[in-house]
């Protein structure tokens, strides 16, 4: 699902599943981890830009793929560990990462921006964590969201599931720069060029210090969401989503 092209010390990483609006299947999280490891080891790369192909950044987890996860708490716990470890590897990549966002950045898509260092969004971008609508809470969002968003905004996102416009996301702290439609990649490239011109050792050390201690709640979040995924609300939420009706919790 991820393609990588390196140009002038910048790795352009594309979420490349446009036909599914860049929905994330289970295999994506290990791919995210492995891609982070490859980028960390590549001396030609000083900065990373991640963006979505097609109409949007990403609509988040692939609902259809949930049916392929075995039942039971243990299997769901392992799934959540894979997901959280993938996002954590991206967060701890020792090179600055810029997200360039257009269209929907929902669920896992929104959470992926939370583990990037700088976020550029064009005016079409919409950020949201709608997991409560299917009986869940946003895993990486619960771990990393408060590093960027104040408590009231984070509660608003988690409890209502309503999306934020690009400008609202900037006010909330999720976004650094809002551009006119279609100009997010150019602005991300401009910022990446500036970052690439700085000391790579200094940017790596600075990023590491600022991110220290960020994943202390990872085990608790994995366990809690595993329990939610074997509950009645999750089953009803997924059924309602597939049947295109309102859930009855």
Textual characterization of the structure:
The protein has 249 residues and is α/β, with parallel strands linked by helices. Helices cover 47% and strands 16% of the residues. It contains eleven helices and nine strands. It has helices spanning 27-41, 63-66, 73-91, 108-114, 139-144, 151-160, 166-172, 184-196, 200-210, 218-229, 232-243; strands at 2-7, 10-15, 47-52, 97-101, 104-106, 118-122, 126-128, 164-165, 177-179. The protein has a six-stranded mixed β-sheet with strand order 1-2-3-4-6-9, with helices on both faces. Strands 5-7-8 form a three-stranded mixed β-sheet. The longest helix is centred in the N-terminal third of the chain and has 19 residues, at 73-91. The radius of gyration is 17 Å and the shape is globular. It starts with a strand and ends in a 6-residue tail after the last helix. The mean pLDDT is 94.
Summed up, what is this model?
The chain is of the alpha/beta class and 249 residues long. The chain contains eleven helices and nine strands.
- Taken as a percent bin, the fraction of beta residues is 15-25%
Structural class: alpha/beta
- How many β-strand runs? 9
Report the uncertain regions: none
> What is the distance, rounded to the nearest whole angstrom, between the alpha carbons of the first and last residues?
34 Å
Q: Given the C-alpha coordinates, what overall shape results?
A: globular
The value of Rg in angstroms is: 17 Å
Question: Which characteristics define this entry?
Answer:
three-stranded mixed β-sheet, 11 helices, alpha/beta, 249 residues, 47% helix
